[in-house]
């Protein structure tokens, strides 16, 4: 029993989770903290109180860091003090945004914003934090991909392009860094009840169509991602490289 607990323990580890204020990022932050990691909660507005309270409830520890990941030219400078203070063992690139509009009218400004947050920031953080991991010969990077890393979606070209990019980047970094002791993997959540999907849940026809296609018969909850994240953050996944783990209630197998 102790052997199994040790395999999943994150005691003594430091994790950085982006987009930690809400939804999936919040659930993963709480899960990693409960497993013993000191969690650096990255948000872009000073309102992470709900995540902090949930971490305190499980007896975990945290710090907060405020960086706007859409301002990609500033990320390297802003992350530097954190890297001087902490050895980051686990990076969860979770922050992501969606903008819906038919492709012919799609705003170029929104395209840039979505691709900056969902893909360019993921590369910059992986590079800046991955550098130390490669030097130390150990580290875990978990990127939050999507079913739209495999499928096209409707009216979300920037989101789909960025999430296909996240899956590709995961495999590219995994190939390079596997031999250096750094595991880079991704989680592709299915339809999860968060702010990100509020608009489609409020569209009753779309909501019904989605529910009918999910073999599990329900929307996922942010907490449904905790186990997968813990697995990929821990020793339990030391021989898992470049995998995109789908957590979708069976959507992709239908
Ligand atoms: P969410 O609750 O909207 O979470 C997104 C998080 O990213 C929020 O905490 C948000 O902070 C943060 N964020 C947004 N813009 C940012 C920026 N410029 N800089 C820093 N942080 C920023 O939605 P979610 O569903 O949990 O999304 C988390 C990840 O899961 C995303 O990558 C999303 O694409 C992915 N995903 C979600 C689903 C789903 O069904 N929900 C499915 C597949 C993949 P604020 O709220 O303060 O703006």
From TrEMBL:
One of its GO terms (biological process) is bile acid metabolic process. It comes from the Bacteria. Keywords: Oxidoreductase. One of its GO terms (molecular function) is 2-deoxy-D-gluconate 3-dehydrogenase activity. Signal peptide: none annotated. NCBIfam families: kduD (TIGR01832), PRK06935.1 (NF005390). PANTHER family: 2-DEHYDRO-3-DEOXY-D-GLUCONATE 5-DEHYDROGENASE, SHORT-CHAIN DEHYDROGENASES/REDUCTASES FAMILY MEMBER. This is 2-deoxy-D-gluconate 3-dehydrogenase. It comes from Brevibacillus panacihumi W25.
